[in-house]
Amino acid sequence: MKGNVSFSYLIIYSFGVTLGVCHTINGPTISLDYNYVPHTTVHDIENYEQLRTVTPENPTPLNPRRKGDELFIQPSRRQYLLMRDAGFSKMQIKQATEEAQHAARERNKGAKRLIRLDEMMANRRFRVSKRRAEAR
After folding, report:
1. On the CB side of 109, how many CA atoms lie within 13 Å of its CA?
2. Spatial distance between the Cα atoms of 95 and 101, rounded to a whole number of angstroms
3. 33: which of 16, 28, 103, 120 fits an S-S bond (Cβ 3.0–4.6 Å)?
4. What is the DSSP letter of 69?
5. d(CA 128, CA 131)
C-alpha cells in the first residue's frame, strides 16, 4: 500500500560555521557549528519554492536551488568565511589544514596497504585452489 506525504510549511534554522574535521588535502574544511542562531524563519512551502525557482516572473530568485559544482566552495573562500564568520585566525586555519592534510595522507597510505593485502590474499587463494585442482 502506497501512502502520501505532504508538507505545508518549512522552518529554517541558521547555524554558524566552524573549522571542520574532514580529512582533505584541499584547504580548510567548514562544518556547521553546534549552536544555532535563535532566529528561525517559517515559510509556506509553496511560496518558498516559488521564490527560489527561476521563472520569467522571477529571473533572479533570492535563494536559487544549486547543483553539483555550485555547491563547491574554493579553499580561499572557505578561509575567508572562517575568518569573517567564525573568528578564526590565519594561523589556526593553517594548523587545522595541515592536520587534515596529514590525516588524509595517512588514510591514503592505509588504503594502499589494504589493497596490497587484498591482492596478496587473492593471489594466495588462487595458488591454493590451483594446487588442489592439480592434486585431483
Report:
1. 6
2. 10
3. 16
4. G
5. 5
Confidence (pTM): 0.61
Q: Which of 4, 35, 39, 44 is nearest to 17 (CA)?
A: 35
Instruction: Report helix, strand or coil for 72.
Output: coil
Enumerate the β-bridge partners of residue 33: none
Residues 22-48: tens digit of each pLDDT: 767 688 888 888 888 887 888 888 888
The C-alpha atoms of residue 18 and residue 86 are separated, in whole angstroms, by 6
pLDDT-derived band of residue 126, with 50, 70 and 90 as boundaries? low
- How many CB atoms are closer than 10 A to CB 79? 19
Q: Is the pLDDT of residue 98 over 80?
A: yes
Burial 52-65 (b: 16+ CB within 10 A, else e): eeeeeeeeeeeeee
Specify whether the CB–CB gap between 61 and 51 falls below 8 A.
Answer: yes
Q: What CA–CA distance (Å, rounded) separates 125 from 94?
A: 47
Where do the H-state alpha helices sit in 1-136? 45-52, 75-86, 90-135
